[in-house]
């Protein structure tokens, strides 16, 4: 088997069917053997029935795996273990892929030149953006799942994201799987398991490729264009970043394990949020403040000993 597409899902049977329909009609050379492995992460809706329908409709093309351990990282790691292909591709359960997506994303991964690849992800709007959000601003890309770092194909200097990425299977054998203390799980927007793995490879000197012709459309769901969702997303993104990167080297002064500069930064962004008039700038400042609050919480949680003392600390 050349390629395994790992699609992890949790209680999204309606969007799942559309995603599976789009990947089912992928156009690849006849010499390329490929499959889709659907990993059901404890869904309680009609996911199993949807999976069964596709397995019957496309025998030998679709496989179904039920993973009881909750969490996206656990589901993805289960998919990696069960994958038959020497290239493992990841897509989300609410995207639509172009027929040429799979071929374009994986074409350069059949030799040892590239360790992995990422493709372009475009948000698909079904309504007008709210007045408090700039769709092209940096605060929109993550929550709305967009990835388009450069117009041209070539080497990636940043990790791809989970809705549209592929790696040679040997990379997981060499560097391990996705961190299970990161990644979505019921009741939590903690993320970064995908980008942490990509950075792990880049730090080890592996080469990643960007292929803009490997195109995926990600719908902008109504629940994602609410302020509460954006605030929660950036709060948890900041927590995940701090969990992965730790306190920067050279940090001297902490209170309860929290660097003092984080309190200063929180105060600055809170003030900017309170005085801003423009709705985009005002909400952007609030998101920065929420991010700082997430960093503070994660420092506190990761430094239990420091809760009882105030003094110097090092990363």
Structural overview:
With 315 residues, the chain is α/β, with parallel strands linked by helices. It folds into 2 domains: 3-224, Spore Coat Polysaccharide Biosynthesis Protein SpsA, Chain A (Alpha-Beta Complex); 227-312. It is 39% helix and 20% strand. Strands 1, 2, 3, 4, 5, 6, 7, 8 and 9 form a 9-stranded mixed beta sheet that branches. The chain has a 3-stranded antiparallel beta sheet with strand order 11-10-12. It is globular. It starts with a strand and ends with a strand. The relative contact order is 0.13. The model has no long low-confidence stretch (mean pLDDT 93).
Question: What characteristics describe this protein?
Answer:
single chain; 315 residues; alpha/beta; Spore Coat Polysaccharide Biosynthesis Protein SpsA, Chain A; 2 domains; nine-stranded mixed β-sheet; three-stranded antiparallel β-sheet; 10 helices; 12 strands; 39% helix; globular
Task: Compose a concise summary of this entry.
By secondary structure, the protein is of the alpha/beta class.
Furnish the topology, listing elements before pairings.
Blueprint: E1 3-9, H1 13-24, E2 34-40, H2 47-57, E3 62-66, H3 72-82, E4 87-91, E5 96-97, H4 101-106, E6 116-124, H5 138-144, E7 154-156, E8 164-168, H6 169-175, H7 193-203, E9 208-219, H8 227-245, E10 253-255, E11 258-259, H9 260-275, H10 279-302, E12 310-312
Parallel strand pairs: 1-2, 1-4, 2-3, 6-9
Antiparallel strand pairs: 4-8, 5-9, 6-8, 7-9, 10-11, 10-12
Helix pairs in contact: 1-2, 5-8, 8-10, 9-10
